[in-house]
Amino acid sequence: MWRVARDSGELDLNSSYAYLVLAEHFAETCRVAVVPDGASPTGERVVGFVSGYRLPDDVAHLFVWQVAVDEEARGNGIAGRLLDALVDDAPDLTTVKTTVAEDNVASRTLFVRWAARRGATIGTTPLFTADHFPDAHVDEPMLVIDGVHAR
Ligand SMILES: CC(C)(COP(=O)(O)OP(=O)(O)OC[C@H]1O[C@@H](n2cnc3c(N)ncnc32)[C@H](O)[C@@H]1OP(=O)(O)O)[C@@H](O)C(=O)NCCC(=O)NCCS
Q1: Which of 23, 107, 136, 146 makes a 20 to 30 Å CA pair with 90?
Q2: 80 ligand 1 Cβ < 6 A
Q3: Mutation test of ligand 1: which of 110, 111, 128, 145 has the most ligand atoms closer than 8 Å to its C-beta?
């Protein structure tokens, strides 16, 4: 996850420790996408991930923290399938929330198309604005995808 985030060209890279904590304590709401790789000792290689957690004050709401797919694997529906996997394994979820920078067309399109495919509604509401960040950062409005159902 750390490696994919690092190479994404887009994501804020968290510490490697943070990804280990996510994988250890939030595995129910994180997924990786793997492809066969004969050169790897495990026989497979991670090419994408989604990380998230249930909102502590409303556990039917899943907050998607980061999603990324290696550049050479993009455009094959992997990110959409990662989101599918999270929701299909959690029948009690009603809502998916995430933040997307205004200029991140790929990410915005991913969530808009995914919501449509899942028969859910999508809306935007302000969340983090540039002045919330101690470092240089663009606004991160929140996307709210309501009416998700496991299949
Ligand atoms: C955003 C990202 C995860 C999408 O991964 P992906 O596996 O290529 O996405 P998918 O193939 O599932 O595509 C989902 C939809 O978005 C569309 N899409 C994907 N990339 C796009 C782009 N660059 N421009 C426009 N639309 C795009 C696809 O056409 C697809 O729409 P469809 O269902 O109508 O065919 C990937 O581009 C990425 O890792 N970007 C860098 C990291 C990032 O910005 N993450 C999001 C912020 S947390």
Answers
A1: 107
A2: yes
A3: 110
Q: How confident is the model at residue 33 (pLDDT cuts 50, 70, 90)?
A: very high
User: Is the Cβ–Cβ distance between 37 and 16 less than 8 Å?
Assistant: no
Buried b (16+ CB within 10 A) or exposed e, 112-141: eebbeebebebeeeeeeeeeeeeeeeebbb
pLDDT band at 133 (very low <50, low <70, confident <90, very high): very high
Counting residues of the chain whose pLDDT is more than 70, the rounded percentage is 100
Query: Is 0.85 surpassed by the pTM of this model?
Result: yes
What is the Cα–Cα distance from 98 to 82, expressed in whole angstroms? Answer: 14
Kindly state the tokens that stand for 77: 């529906």
Cα–Cα distance, 16 to 125 (Å, whole number): 30
Distance 111 CA to ligand 1 centre (A): 8
